[in-house]
Amino acid sequence: MHLLFEEGGDIKIATLITASGAESEPLAVESIGGKRGKLKSKDVWLRFQCPPAIPVAEFLPQAKLLADEIDLDFVWECAGNGEFQFLDLAKEYFGETSTSLQQTALAIALQGAPVYFRRKGRGQFLRAPEDQLKAALLAVERKKLELAKQEAWEAELREWRLPEEIHPQVNALLFAPDKNTTAYKAVHAASQGLKGGIAELFLKCGVLGSALVYHEGKFLKEHFPKGTGFNVTLQASEEADWQTALNQLPISNVRAFSIDDASTTEIDDAFSVTALADLKDHYRIGVHIAAPALAIARGGALDQIARQRLSTVYFPGGKITMLPDQVIDVFSLHAAEGVNDDLPLRPAVSLYVTIDADGIPVLEGDHAPVTKVERVPMAHNLRLDNLEDLVTEESLSDVSNSAKLPYQHELAVLWRSAKQLHARRQEQRVANGLRAEVLGLPDPQALARDFNFKVTDGVVEIKPRQRGSVLDSIVAEWMIYCNSTWGNQLASHSVPGIYRTQKGWGPQRTRMQTAPGPHEGLGVENYSWCTSPLRRYVDLVNQWQLIAMAQHGVTAKLVAPFKPKDAELMAIAADFDGTYAAYGDHQNQMERYWCFQYLKQAGLPWKGVVRHLKDGQARVEEIPLRLSIPELAEQARGARAEVEVLEIDFLSLEASVRYLGVIESAATDITFDSVADDSSGDNAEVNVHSEVNSGATD
């Protein structure tokens, strides 16, 4: 005897071996495949003898073929409105003399047609209501049409042709796909086997211009889903109001100049040097920082934009500014373009520091550092591209160079003081258990760590920057001093601010926080980012607080935009850390893309020299590109090796590299990758303001 039953949603048959006779006792059965087991009597739908003409192994396949021929619409009509047993319906459909094969076929048909029939028990069913059946049949038909469309689209895609209907969905399918859509199912299926997935499929179809478009689009979709434009239009009356307020500021009696790359448009900082008549060989150094906080009110439209973006985004070939051009044009410390006796007056928050004959700041008395909010006459914008190689310690001390070195005397004074500032920081670094850093240009044998990327019509130039040059050191040391001094002043006045701290070790060693704290790597007591308010939201927030401190003194904490324990200030610090890191990752990824493009421009296969960093990771000597070279894992740190880049995958930003052999096995110092010391641990702190170099912040 054979038994018909359901298991896991499928109709199955088994051969009865023995039965105890008791209804409650399980039945010993053997499956068609020969596997023995037990089956409860109550789970059996039908007991039957297999017809002699049909082998047991063929019984179920033949029943399934017969089930396919059953007219479900007619069966539904025959079923009536109440619950029914499938054997009863078999008599209605096949007649009173229905065979076990026909009965099994009907069981299979009913079990496999949930649109028509609801299962109510073992072999028991209820037909679906008419309105629900019609709706379900329409859905099934739509599903068939969608499946046919999906198969047709998939066939086109496999021939590297994009169906017209999918064109408008390209960006959504790449960066935010709805996985339930027919379009996604088609492109996902067609992209199987492609290493780059859907992005590679679209590249092959010609609808994705390049891998660069993909990388940029992915970043913009995540961080700028509404586009990079600004949703704010400044009225002429608003700018007029700004100018009216700015005109009420006092005018500083200085001639200020800035030091930046030629491409810098957001000029945040400038210097002035004034000899003091009452103190021989003493000078008053002015560090002047652009003051957009004078026009941007907390909670206003511009603040909301800056709060959302948190920073300007830099990458080779472009940038996305934190603030609209209208704001930058008013507050950037631009000098007049031509020769003009009437210097443009730019609003600034200025720190004035008196230095003695040795270049050491005077910290007490009438000449202690003071912060002012004022308008500063901007005389010049010095550009590193033209001067960095010319300005050396020797050229600054040679008076015959005054004609070709603008501001030679002022730069000499700033350089003398920068050396003193650096020396004092190194004393504190050593006290913190870190090794002292050497001022000046690095060892020419060491790997360059800063680079300028210039992209023109898809062609990239990559050149190393002079980290540690005189101009670089002047800007770096005075920005560190300015940020440190303002951090100390905010703390001493109990005015809340956001601090950049570095203490101890671990992943959270360097972070933004609202409590004052030391930056051990820089060797300063308190450090708050204040010198880039046009480009970083943290600096803008701190500038609001600084202006309150400068204008209200001891009562500043009562009138400053952010009061003590302001939860929003803490949220800004946390959000900034995450966003700033994401922007930095994007910049690094884009630099990696353009480094690969640089190699491709030179011609593949590209042969060159790398230096081993650690664990089989190496860096190309001439550009900031890291490659995985497993063969170097056992070599000393700094070992030089020759490699050949054979192929480049611009989607994954990985390369196929052939190891050719070690050139020299002796270790060479690689200062920028030192893990033993971690240097300042915050390399961005000591870079000149540059919009094209690697790590383009102060």
Plain-language structure description:
This protein is of the alpha+beta class and 698 residues long. It has four domains: 2-128, no CATH class; 132-209, no CATH class; 236-579, no CATH class; 583-686, no CATH class. The chain is built from 19 helices and 24 strands. Strands 4-3-2-1-5 form a five-stranded antiparallel beta sheet. A five-stranded mixed beta sheet has the order 9-15-14-11-10, sandwiched between helices. A hairpin with a 2-residue loop joins strand 1 and strand 2 (10-18). The longest helix has 36 residues, at 567-602.
Gyration radius, in Å? 38 Å
Quote the average pLDDT. 87
Low-pLDDT stretches: 671-698
Give the strand order, joined by hyphens, for the main sheet: 4-3-2-1-5
Q: Count of helical segments?
A: 19
Beta strand count: 24
Q: How many distinct domains?
A: 4
**How much helicity do the residues have?**
25-40%
The first-to-last residue Cα distance is 87 Å
Question: What gross morphology would you assign?
Answer: elongated
Note the beta-strand portion. Answer: 15-25%
Overall SS class = alpha+beta
What characterizes the major β-sheet? 5 strands, antiparallel
Spell out the key features of this protein.
single chain, 698 residues, alpha+beta, 4 domains, 5-stranded antiparallel beta sheet, 5-stranded mixed beta sheet, 24 strands, disordered C terminus
What's the gist of this structure?
35% of the residues lie in helices and 21% in strands. It has 19 helices and 24 strands. It has a five-stranded antiparallel sheet with strand order 4-3-2-1-5. A five-stranded mixed sheet has the order 9-15-14-11-10, sandwiched between helices. A five-stranded antiparallel sheet has the order 22-21-20-23-24.
